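Record Heparinase II/III-like protein, 684 aa.
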Amino acid sequence: MKYPCCIFHSIASVTLSCLLIVSVASAVSYPKVDPESVFPEIKIYDKLGRPYRSAREDWEGARKRIEQDPLWAQWLNQERATVDAWMKRHRDRVTWIAGWSNNFVSPKDGSKLTWIEAIPGEEVDHFSSPSDPHVEITDKLMAAWVRTWREHHAEMMERAARLYRLTNEEKYAEWAADQLDFYANHYLEWEPQRQGARLFWQSLTEGVNLITYAQTVRLLGEYAGPSRRKIWHDDFFVPEVAVLNENFPKILNITCWLRGAAAQVALVFDDDAMWQEAINGPFGVRQQVSEGITSDYLWFEQSLGYNSYVVTALTSLFETAGLFGRADELALEMATVENLMLASTYLRFPTGQLPTPSDTKGQLFAPDREFIGSHYRVFPTTIGLADVQKERNWDTLLDPPSPLTNSQAELPEVTSRNFETSRMAVLKKGPWQVFFHYGQPPIKSHLQAEVLNYSAFYGDVDITHDPGTVGYGSPLHKYYYTQGLNHNVPLVNGEGQQQPPKGRKPDPFTETRAGELIDFSINPPTINAAHPVYRTDAAAERELRIEGESLIDVTQIEVQSSKPQKLGLALHVQGSVRLPDSFLPDPDFSNDRPPAFSYWKNVSTAEYENEASFDVDFKTITMRITFSVASSAGPSTFRVWHGSSPDMPPGRREAFYLETAGTSATFTTRFAPVGDIATTESDQ
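=>
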């Protein structure tokens, strides 16, 4: 261990001082130099050197396109049919109480349920998911269904208003306006739920959908008249914005939505005071972009899904600002957010698969051509314009994408790179590519016990990855996916990195969670990071390096204890392990261990001394994984467990858990290819 013996004195003092913290840590500064010039390989610049533009709406041109192009006419007929069907069938109810979308999951495996518009209990008697065909309707699931229904209803209001603007058919305007009347008249009849939200379960969803309601008002124009618009403003939008402004006074992905929504309401109703508060006020849009986007142009909460989430929130604002001639006021923010949209492209594995730090749900890929293309109205890129050319939707009808001058959109090369302000790194040499998550931000949201975790590819073969998580309402999220055993990390008595207390209790790890980057080298490809406060009584360090055809991991763990502790290491693989006959079933694997251990299946175990090697068959190659263990307790005897662990649901994968006793231990893991599958099988 590279730490001096006195490390635990410093741990104790750091922990004590941090426990005195009673508020969120002061904001981290993330300098951004000339954001317009970053990632130039993908951007399209205008004559003034700007990679962004103001969105526009060409209604007269849209009508001509409908008249002159049969495909556009066909699209319009389909849009009419969809909106007409919804208008005829659906109407909101004050008795419908919206719940949390993350609760809309299977109780069996945490997989997302399939949402359909049929009304539960009236038109259908159960829910289902691809892996769970019959799920009982419960109050919690019904509320989650209502949340999605109400969001669809809001979207239909906006689409109806667009149809009115395009066709001048007043039936669409009157239906959309009638829905706004309903919400203004009945808004206070919904009891406040979480954070004062009424139409939805939480203020975040309230803000997201308030944007859609505001766009409906904008599109209706003068149809409703001043008195009707005033009722909407006074009885619905003003109290809604008040709810948004009362919540999340911090740098947070949610706050981007809340302030972005308030800013768009301000534009629609020409409320300059509301605009100034949303843009320039405390924790307004400018501060969110400045302090929430790192110098590497990743969202600081680390879940890559939140990159896209924040981009969507703020691009919605940028589009509306452009339509009102206010985009130039947000030039710096636009340049920065475009980089946030593109940055994950430089993290992608050879298959396009992205790593899943923090609580990402589902497998993400980069570049997400559909996502990047959907933002072309503000951020024209080679990737986005190539993807959106043949799209037919409201955006491309009203603001047609410019034709690409180049026929091929080239992707940037992924190289070894230290995303230092984001506490992540990529090592790449030859066929090996490794993503290392070596530190975390000084906030509690979206954390998992995953610091020092890594994912690795060998060419296009997925060797090991982080499966992310499932819906927050699933027990699997709380008891497994967020825990150390789900990650390739060191464990102390079965526990990974110590997590902060829930709720508003002080966070004793705010100042230490970033860890210490000891070394980063492109040649030779090496990275080494340490966490002196991995737990209140433990320090950990990990070095990853690529040597020729091998990937080597050296992980050290040290505890402050006079008695030997159970020191362990988890490793999950995306291949099939050739397990020796010496492994015997262990039905007691989860006994006297944290709850996460109960989620492994078919567990067997064997004891080793000094070293253990296993051949693992992957998609096209066989990899020999060799573990060696050195412990402070004396002879290097350790036990290896093998089992089936949860992967991205409903999938499972194979996994190892190593354990030895002592106050310190070093686990060395070597991955070395030994040939393709056919060759190695013939040698058996």
